[in-house]
């Protein structure tokens, strides 16, 4: 048969291939799946081939893993009757701003009077910032003074708040005057601040998850009057917004970590 094939060189190549395939063992003939475009029909075609096993290389896996999915860009005005995506976007952005504000006010290598201003103190009148109930000043590069003369009844609460601020501060009290020694900048101190930065970032991500969940719950209420395709598209948009926000939070953490470690 193989000898006879050379006499078919003037016949259509496809027919020659077919004849050649008939002479090969069944194990050497593979089935190739070809997906149709319109109705996702599948058809199978036989090809003469040798049995080859392919293994994915690490490089190929990494390339596939790194491929980004198609992004969604919905016109907010077209879906405002279903959900206010602009409001969702603002809530997610506020999470980023809150983290940046936290980094700037509480996580600094050099403690300054301003870094104590927004420490929250729990008082009988509710939660107040330290600068609302005291006068904060810098006596020396190594010492901050917090004068509680105007609200002496809040002194104990202020000491507790300063100690639990996560800034590695150990306040000392003399009557209504709180002395706050500034800690020496050591490697351990820097690493502790980085740890606090990571904790605050994780808290920000928790807040972001709540924003995303609330948005998804609002969207579910419109499922009866909105097509599944539209709902699915909006869900993807919300998830995409959340993913972008997480990436931004991680970027700010990376910048802060580099700053703190020096």
TrEMBL record:
<dbReference type="GO" id="GO:0006412">
    <property type="term" value="P:translation"/>
</dbReference>
<dbReference type="InterPro" id="IPR002661">
    <property type="entry name" value="Ribosome_recyc_fac"/>
</dbReference>
<keyword id="KW-0496">Mitochondrion</keyword>
<comment type="function">
    <text>Responsible for the disassembly of ribosomes from messenger RNA at the termination of mitochondrial protein biosynthesis. Acts in collaboration with GFM2. Promotes mitochondrial ribosome recycling by dissolution of intersubunit contacts.</text>
</comment>
<dbReference type="InterPro" id="IPR023584">
    <property type="entry name" value="Ribosome_recyc_fac_dom"/>
</dbReference>
<keyword id="KW-0648">Protein biosynthesis</keyword>
<protein>
    <recommendedName>
        <fullName>Ribosome-recycling factor, mitochondrial</fullName>
    </recommendedName>
</protein>
<dbReference type="Pfam" id="PF01765">
    <property type="entry name" value="RRF"/>
</dbReference>
<feature type="domain" description="Ribosome recycling factor">
    <location>
        <begin position="99"/>
        <end position="261"/>
    </location>
</feature>
<dbReference type="GO" id="GO:0043023">
    <property type="term" value="F:ribosomal large subunit binding"/>
</dbReference>
<comment type="similarity">
    <text>Belongs to the RRF family.</text>
</comment>
<dbReference type="InterPro" id="IPR036191">
    <property type="entry name" value="RRF_sf"/>
</dbReference>
<dbReference type="GO" id="GO:0005739">
    <property type="term" value="C:mitochondrion"/>
</dbReference>
<keyword id="KW-0809">Transit peptide</keyword>
